[in-house]
Design a protein that fits this description.
This protein is an alpha/beta fold. The protein has a single domain, classed as Rossmann fold (3-Layer(aba) Sandwich). The chain has ten helices and seven strands. β1, α1 and β2 form a beta-alpha-beta unit. α1 packs across α8, α3 packs parallel to α4 and α4 runs parallel beside α5. The longest helix is centred in the middle third of the chain and has 29 residues.
């Protein structure tokens, strides 16, 4: 991690803040993005000269593009992007506020899409690593969390597609699947009423356990990051079918087809950018 530049959304608190601390402690440099200006300032001040950051809304592609420009200007490049920002609401499908459903999908899905989209040019230059944060909720769908489960399943799908599309540029993609974790976000919505009594594989874990797994995932450019390991069968069983589908598609020429499509896209893009 020494001298690696890591860009983290939702990096001013929770798992993102803990990961930023680990990166700096290992000799890396971090750029944290969050909505709360005070949190961003407090976090970067605490981390010192190897940290910088700005306020940005992941729901805005323009915001994230500007944030990545600022990161590259400050540190010279971007080696790792962590799409960590997310929100949680609780409520039944019948009674939840539709605005809550929209908000969760907007931050958790559109925010990850925007982060991936903005990251590609920078990670292509460094043949870097993209890490997106999904959840056990992508595989195990519990009551009162329809919006969250749907969003995290979508995040896993985005990671699976991005992995195939970006492999041609030497970019590795990892997807994080933590179980219920004792972060401020969980406590703020009192999700313990649903998860707090579980034991064994479904027991809550402390943030440090997930942060350790995320940090290891970055260092090893891992495809799947699962915390704790006991939940691995729940995550990997469906994923085996995804992996098989990826291999089959490659045998049938999907990589070559994608490269050809990508070349045509770039030609079209250049033409549209030419002055009239």
């Amino acid at each position: 991690m020494k001298n690696k530049v890591v860009f983290i959304t939702g990096g001013a608190r929770g798992l993102g803040a803990g990961l930023a601390q680990r990166v700096v402690s290992a000799g890396g440099q971090v750029f944290v993005v969050d909505l709360n200006e005070r949190d961003v300032f407090t976090q970067t001040e605490a981390l010192g000269a190897n940290a910088a950051g700005c306020v940005a809304n992941v729901c805005s592609l323009g915001d994230i593009e500007l944030a990545m420009e600022a990161c590259a200007a400050r540190f010279g490049r971007i080696d790792v992007v962590v799409a960590n920002a997310g929100i949680l609401r609780m409520g039944s499908i019948e009674s939840m506020n539709p605005a809550d459903f929209k908000a969760v999908l907007d931050v958790n899905v559109n925010g990850v899409f925007n982060t991936i989209r903005a990251a590609i040019p920078y990670l292509r230059d460094t043949q870097g690593y993209l890490q997106v944060v999904s959840s056990l909720a992508a595989a195990i769908h519990t009551p009162l969390m329809a919006h969250y489960a749907a969003s995290k399943a979508a995040v896993e799908a985005l990671a699976d597609v991005a992995r195939q599309e970006l492999a041609v540029d030497g970019i590795a993609v990892g997807c994080v699947h933590p179980t219920f974790t004792n972060t401020a976000m969980i406590k703020e919505v009192d999700a313990g009423v649903l998860w707090g009594g579980h034991k064994g594989a479904f027991a809550a874990v402390e943030p440090e356990q997930v942060i350790d797994a995320m940090f290891k995932g970055i260092r090893k450019r891992q495809r799947k990051i699962i915390a704790p390991k006991q939940i691995a069968p729940l995550i990997l069983a469906p994923g085996l079918f995804h992996w098989a589908a990826e291999q089959i598609s490659r045998l049938h020429g999907s990589d070559a087809a994608f490269k050809a499509f990508q070349r045509e896209e770039r030609k079209t893009s250049r033409k549209t950018k030419q002055p009239a």
